[in-house]
User: Fold these one by one.
Assistant:
Number 1:
Amino acid sequence: MLRIWLFGFIIVLFSACREKAGEYTISGSLQNNKYDGEIVYLVPLKGANQSNVDSTIIKDGKFSFEGKVDSVGIFILRTRPLLRFKLEEILIVKEPGTVLVNFGEDSFATGTALNDSLQKWKDHKKIFAKTSYALSESGKNDNNVIIEKMETLKSGMRNYYTRFIIYNSKNIVGKSVFQFVKDELTEEQIIRIRKYLEDE
């Protein structure tokens, strides 16, 4: 029991040291070895070019990236286009610490504060999208009840996005999500959010 406790303590201590040193690790896993030999790319969300795109090869159903964090940024983890239906590309925050990625048809990432926060937004976004699609399919006959439910759903989505962005207004996740969704927000919500984004 003592040995297990010491081992756990060493891992935590090692992770903390890596974070202080500004080092990151992205550790990815797949359900099987089907995609061994395929390349995974780590692409900056903005300004991607040959000098700042990293890549690695899937081996034994796993892959990893590691290095130093010069500045916290959002990246896209993706494979070649033909595989993206089976290996969903995913947004990743490159920040100090270890990010664990489950890479598959419904990819997700956890392990650091900003990645955990970004994953919560992605989860909600998927729920909204699935619910909206289901409502639109059932409302093809212009059923007024369905239309009202759709408007309620969209209003709830906008309110969630607003709360999320304000809560994360001082980090790159909130600022990036605002750029992703601002066209879906009301003018009042945009004005309210910008007050928080500019109040630094």
Number 2:
Amino acid sequence: MISRGLLHKTLMLGAFFGMAAAASAPAEAAPTVKMPKPKVFTMAHTVKLSDIQKPLVPNELLGGDREFGGNGPRVDSSVTLAISGDQRSIVAKIRFHAKETKSDWSETRGSWDRVVYTAPGGKKIAKILDSTYSSVNFLSKPAGFQLLAPSEDYLKFLQTFQKVTEAVLMFGSPTAAMEANTPEKRAMRDMANRVIQGTAYLISQGNHVHVVAPKSGPVATFAIVGDTGGPDISDDLNPKDDTRIEGIRFKPLRITFK
């Protein structure tokens, strides 16, 4: 038989070791609470890109001779905007292709990269918010003298034309005679619409400068010469009387900075 004292000691030791085991057992882990990530609010900035005002002249001969001979050419041109590797600037990657529509299929192409924006004060560009690609495709008019407006610099012409149009159409006299829808005002409005829509063309050195508006993207208008009065595909970098991009006008662009 177990004495009463021994039984008491045994019970006491069992209780002691039970408490120790409970104390040494790992505590139950608290549930993990996932905190929502803080929202980052980025401010959009609208910037003005530098227009391409110096002619871009392709001189690579892909086929045929260097003369389109009034057979088009069919012209394709595009611009893709990209952020530079150091994120300090925006580069316009410009592509051009022109091909005669028959005969010996004279053909040329060219590509150029041009910086059209540089961030101020050492800032870095995080993202371009607007569309980065514009393109046009059209059949060049044959060289000649079908005149819409004379100009050696289509960008200056468009700026001056816009000011003149606004003066005529927007700031009319209060008199009924000046407010009337006259033939002169209708002609001015029609010409303004053609320029805005990119269906106009100018004359430069006897060549048609086609002012063409893409359907979308960062470019407002391309100014392009297809057929010329003489040899069309240049064998040098002189833009006179050659197939070329005369200029490119850009829209304002929304970007964010880092």
Number 3:
Amino acid sequence: MRIPEPTLDGVAEARKKFIEQVDPTNLFYRAATKLVELALSEAREADSLTLAEAVGVLLKTWNDGFYRFGHAKFDKEHLGKIQELMDSPELNLLSFRERSLESLHSEEESSIKTIFESFEKVLGTIGAAKCLHLLAPQFFPLWDRDIAHGYQIYPQKRGTNGENYVKFVNKTREQIEKLKREGFRYEDSLKALDEYNWIHAHQNKRRKSRQP
């Protein structure tokens, strides 16, 4: 089923449902966000957290199935691969950290595709979006497969979904721009929109599974 286009009231209602039914405290998200800030502020200190370790707090909870089903081991080597991607001058990830999604230019789409596929090969389709979002929470939107399907986007083999993610990025940008013209004023706008998508995608899925 398609996810309906978000409205101001719809996003507010979905946030309330998300807090009540899914994550009352947003604990892991808030913790990982703070740890990323800490890792960036203490980057030159010998005993500081690495960015990969900070992001790993969320990946191990939000993306647990990726590890539980054997796609990768959550170990030092895995964290090292994530850190290599974050440190890559070619990907230049931190240049997106202070940007909003509305600032995306069409000529940057090929870079977003490359960045996403590089992370997807290490973290999977869902984990890549979660990791990128933590690094640039106002630029990279969150998704999972149910949400993607709700927008008629169908991820394929791991490491090949950069174009699909760019489609989702552009769709999200259109939604954010429209909502902001109508008075959308969330500081965590992409997180709020993800909660809206999650409620609609997963509630629809549960309703369908209960049908005789």
Number 4:
Amino acid sequence: MAISVVMPALEMAQETGKVLAWHKKEGDTVKKGEPLLEIETDKAVVEIEAPGNGILAGISAQAGAVIPVGVIIAWLVAAGEKPPAQTETAAPSARATSAPSTSERSSATIKSAAPSGSTAIQISPKARRLAKELGIDTSALTGTGPDGTITAEDVQAAAAPSKSSPVSPAPSAEATNAASSGEPLSQIARLMAERTTQSWTTVPHFFLTREVDCTEVLAAQKRLGPAGEKNAGVRLTVSDLLVALVARALAKHPAMNASWSGAGIRQNTEINISLAMAVKDGVVGAVIHRANSANLNEISAQRHELTERARANKLRPADISGGTFTISNLGMYKVDAFVAIITPPQAATLAVGAIADRVVAAAGKPAVRPMMTMTLSSDHRVVDGARAAEFLNTLADAIQKPDGWLA
């Protein structure tokens, strides 16, 4: 029986993916789990694995094509078998071909059908939201997307002023030059801009800041480093220690590990730490799954592998899916402190600055200590200031006395 290869959905808000390259060509034999193609999503460039064994056939999306999530783009068939004649949309709940985290249960709706007995209207989720905001009647629109799907661009075009509207003044030469000199954004950069704007303008952020003494955590890094290097083959970093300590602190404060959904607050059963990593076209959140139960060697090895794959544009769908809390560390860039934007639907993001020697009061006397500033951005719909402060206090205690938390 033929196996469909679909454009995967890595999150609810994702609508499309761009095919970058096929690792196999039509007629090649592939095995389940073998790298099949690369796609670009709003999060990153990811490598999609074959969902089964078979011969690659019926490729309908070539490099450069932007395809709605859930749409079948190829088939894996048996010897002598032909791919189904009609390569349309897969089930609305189609997910990435590699298995996602168990905490990731959201499905991606590809198209909406009108009630039974009426003509079906195919419209993307983003276009539906935009039409509702602008008061546009979608039944009168003609879609320009695949299979006549109404896109956000179609809605925007319908909402544009008519030709009878007053004509705007001609732009100045300076404005024209500025517009023509701009470079087009990649899909990752464009959607990252859209998502951060949406988060900043719709999520009620509030911020808590705390300075912590890193004397003991640096001592722990030095003491535990040789063991980590021997067992995992990579250097133990402060980020590894932070992942472990944050995850363990979240286990004591589950409200900070929750998410906001349309129905309200959703409690996450797993603690999956997303590490913000800089890539060519923006920032990607690489996820260390079940970090609260992983030891330092496992965390360090996962972080190293994710970093290497991110640099090589080889991230897999599971690498960027299922995050429940984000850590953004700019200490390596010598940044003292900053404020981070929350990654919906997560409840919070921790922004971490550089560890630097500062003069502080110690036992009533001035002393030089390696200090670090943490800023916690929280969603006020999910947690209040008191609960966020309790979490931050627990985390600060863990950083200042890590041995009891890392055993």
